[in-house]
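PROTEIN DESIGN WORKSHEET
SECTION A - STRUCTURE
LENGTH: 263
TOKENS:
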């Protein structure tokens, strides 16, 4: 288990991948923690699908919890601080219509945006003429738009006078949304985001120069345990090597002195 779960990376310039992350198609799932799956579509390209949730509401439906995800490339992983920096590439599309059975109460995601700022949005379905006449208001959501209509998103801090009430109809509201990662209209060509995870906690282990593994022996009560980083001798082995060097040095000195005495 330890060998097949040893740290790997997608190329010489890619970040090292070790627990709680694991590399699909190269390592078994047991090498990592749920929600920490990484992939290598090509050399030096480490990909991560970040999953999270947002809340959606209409006049008749409140607090529908929607699962969302974004595809991202991994720039850096700080295991001591439990931070990962990603470049957001694209996001999943919100639904065109809310349904009561969409809400999931058991959605749990291990990541939060570092220094997170949350946004609220309102979606409007508008005729294509609205875009020509009001290009400065709202952000076009292309994945929700159709041949003869456009869907725009308005931030909650917009004045009600900016909302296209006359030429559009309101679809639903999005709240408690992670800024820069929430929806397709928020992603720029190069959006970098730091994400933080609190569980599993391996910062103490990492601070000692070791890395974590999942503890399958639940009787100990510990979720993880520490392993020496590959290429680094364990503490006991290191002490043995040190003793050997000291003894060898003493024997060498003794032989040297004996030689001088005989001569």
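SECTION B - SEQUENCE
RESIDUE ASSIGNMENT:
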């Amino acid at each position: 288990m330890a060998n097949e779960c040893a740290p790997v990376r997608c190329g010489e310039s890619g970040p090292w991948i070790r627990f709680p992350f694991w590399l699909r198609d190269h390592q078994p799932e047991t090498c990592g923690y749920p929600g920490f799956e990484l992939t290598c579509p090509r050399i030096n390209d480490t990909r991560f699908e970040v999953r999270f949730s947002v809340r959606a509401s209409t006049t008749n439906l409140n607090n529908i919890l929607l699962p969302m995800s974004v595809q991202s490339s991994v720039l850096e992983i700080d295991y001591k601080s439990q931070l990962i920096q990603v470049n957001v590439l694209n996001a999943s599309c919100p639904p065109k219509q809310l349904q009561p059975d969409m809400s999931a109460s058991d959605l749990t995601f291990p990541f939060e945006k570092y220094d997170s700022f949350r946004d609220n949005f309102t979606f409007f379905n508008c005729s294509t003429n609205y875009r020509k006449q009001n290009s400065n208001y709202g952000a076009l959501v292309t994945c929700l738009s159709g041949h003869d209509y456009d869907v725009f998103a308005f931030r909650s801090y917009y004045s009600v006078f900016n909302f296209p009430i006359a030429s559009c109809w309101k679809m639903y509201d999005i709240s408690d949304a992670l800024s820069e990662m929430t929806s397709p209209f928020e992603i720029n060509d190069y959006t970098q985001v730091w994400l933080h995870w609190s569980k599993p906690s391996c910062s103490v282990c990492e601070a000692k120069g070791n890395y974590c593994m999942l503890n399958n022996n639940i009787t100990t009560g510990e979720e993880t345990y520490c392993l020496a980083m590959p290429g680094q001798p364990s503490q006991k082995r290191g002490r043995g090597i040190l003793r050997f060097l000291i003894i060898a040095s003493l024997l060498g000195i003794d032989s040297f002195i004996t030689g001088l005495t005989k001569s």
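SECTION C - NOTES
Residues 232-242 have pLDDT under 50 and may be disordered.
DSSP finds three helices and 13 strands in the chain.
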